[in-house]
Amino acid sequence: MAEEEAGMFTVRQTLGTVLCCKCGISMEPNAANMCVKCLGSEVDITEDLQKNVLIMYCPECGSYLQPPKTRIKAQLESPELLAFCVKRLKNLHKVKLIDARFILTEPHSERIMVELVIQRNVMNGLILQQRYQVDYVVQDQMCDTCSRAQVNPDQLVASVQVRQHVPHRRTFFYLEQLILKHDAAVKSIRIKQMDKGIDFFFANRSHAVKFVEFLGKVTPIKSRHDKQLVSHDRKNNTYNYKYTFSVEISPVCREDLICLPPKVKNTLGNIGPLVICTKVSNSIALLDPQTLRTCFLDADQYWRYSFKSLLSSRQLTEYIVLDITPSEVNVPGTNYVLAHAEVARVSDFGSNDTNFLIRTHLGHLLKPGDYALGYDLYGANSNDIEMDKYKGLEIPYAVLIKKSYEEKRQKKRAKPRSWKLKTLNMEVDDPKGRVDEEKISSEYEQFLQDLEENPDLRFNISLYRDTENQPSEMTSVTDGEHLPAVPLHELLADLEISDDEEYKETEEASTKE
Fold it and tell me: What SS3 class is residue 317?
């Protein structure tokens, strides 16, 4: 400007142009020497992108399926639906998404159209922008929840009724985890929680038979089946039946005290007769706490005699260990240590000085001052028929079952667990409101505590990390106060694909591209 004011001649800079090699129009030079129109006709940046996508829609609850199992509820032409449609496109990370919008369609057309504006590098860094349309075909398919709610009773061809005649549900809590780990009930149409068990409904008899076989491999059962005629076609000579399988689980549970019948005692090599059930699988593991002898009773042997427990886990009494002396007798091949202990009932503190000298198999766990749970045979009023058959039987004052951590748990009751369990999608059959929710919650909490205390019990089930309740550090099986806990290396990561994170990663990849 100063030179022009001074009257000097200046040469203006002009931008050079070239002719397009295809159509010959004047254009600014680029790496391809082609105009935008000709370059778009030569290169299609949408060739590896999807143009047609099939999406599943549940007409009952109005949700769309985000594979594999996530359900998203969204209204037509809403931002949530637009984000869902964009995420369903494959290879979108290879381009940069500039804009996306809906194209107006009729609601009854079962079509959703989206127009996308994308950019992509072509020919030596040249960026080309293009619009293209994606057609989404909406196919109606009910979700699992709505399918179970709308199921026709005639489709329930077979049912498996699992029952156990005990006053608690601890066995079913453990059985539920085994079913989830092995996907044994994946073919079931409906699962219903009953008063004394669980009912499983199947659309095919073979699925029910396979499920009963699975139950026989993980717990001692006896089963019977029956069928009922539903319809009969005389012309084709075809019959439709409803099949019912009745499965009864052995009432003997882990930590129960059992008085063996004389015939069973002789069959098992004169063990007992007072024994503890230490494990229940397809066989029952029994332990004599006085001699540390062990034996196993399979399902056929048990149901041949069909005895019941003398005392169950709901009758456990808390004791305090005053003194304990390990015995010199060493039984090879067992994890237990025989010991002589002096114990007293916690409820007797402050009222009397009654102490008991007993023999226990927990010499490797207990030390003076510890608490233990056991059966009070000194104050128990037992009317067991099998015990009356033994003349001159010397009954111990108490039988200790396990170490108790209740006092330490009360100090850290507010601390959440760093792990969680999955549950079956069950309906609760309670027409008269007889289900005691507080009792079930207490039994479930006791089941979780048993998992923390017993590594063998959680060996066959899957525990998952609870991302919402993660401790700062956890390096041993017990915490600072020697409270049993589940170590982190035993926990599985709960695979949950977050749609927001997946979309964010796609956007970042598109930006880098």
Answer: strand
CA-to-CA dists, residue 292 to 62, 117, 120, 339, 505, angstroms: 61, 76, 75, 11, 59
Residue-wise pLDDT tens digits, 191-201: 999 888 999 99
Determine the 3-state secondary structure of 472 from DSSP: coil
Q: How many residues does the chain have?
A: 513
Q: Which amino acid is at 446?
A: Q
228's tokens = 């009922």
Asked if 319 and 276 sit in the same domain, the reply is yes
Mark whether 86 and 183 lie in a shared domain.
no
The rounded distance, in Å, linking the Cα atoms of 224 and 345 is: 45
Task: Give the separation between CA 366 and CA 364, rounded to whole angstroms.
Answer: 6
Task: Say if residue 489's pLDDT is above 80.
Answer: no
Residue 98 is classified by DSSP as E
- Domain membership of residue 6 (yes or no) is no
- Is 456 among the domain residues? yes
Alpha carbons 434 and 195: distance in angstroms, whole number: 9
Q: Which DSSP string do the residues of 7-23 spell out, in sequence order? A: T---PPP----EE-TTT
- Tell whether the model's pLDDT for residue 507 goes beyond 50: no
Residues 92 and 113 in one domain: yes
Instruction: Flag whether 345 is in a domain.
Output: yes
Stretch (H or E) spanning 295: strand 294-298
The angle formed by the CA atoms of residues 366, 370 and 372, to the nearest 5 degrees, is 75
What tokens were used for 83? Answer: 């984000």
Cα diameter, the chain: 135
User: Rounded to whole angstroms, what are the CA distances from 16 to 13, 27, 341, 387, 435?
Assistant: 9, 9, 102, 110, 86
Question: Which percentage of the chain shows pLDDT scores above 90?
Answer: 40
| pLDDT per residue as tens digits for the range 64-101 | 998 888 888 888 889 999 999 999 998 888 888 999 99
Whole-structure pTM value: 0.70
Question: Pairing mode, if any, of strands 238-249 and 158-163?
Answer: parallel
C-alpha–C-alpha distance, residues 256 and 303, integer Å: 17
Alpha carbons 196 and 237: distance in angstroms, whole number:
39
Whether the pLDDT of residue 213 is over 70: the answer is: yes
pLDDT band at 502; cut points 50, 70, 90: very low
The confidence score (pLDDT) of residue 17 equals 82
Question: Quick check: is 494 in a domain?
Answer: no
Structure tokens at 484: 């049993």
Residue pair 173/421 in contact by the 8 Å Cβ criterion: no
DSSP structure string for 191-229: EEE-SSEEEEEESSHHHHHHHHHHHHHHS-EEEEEEEEE
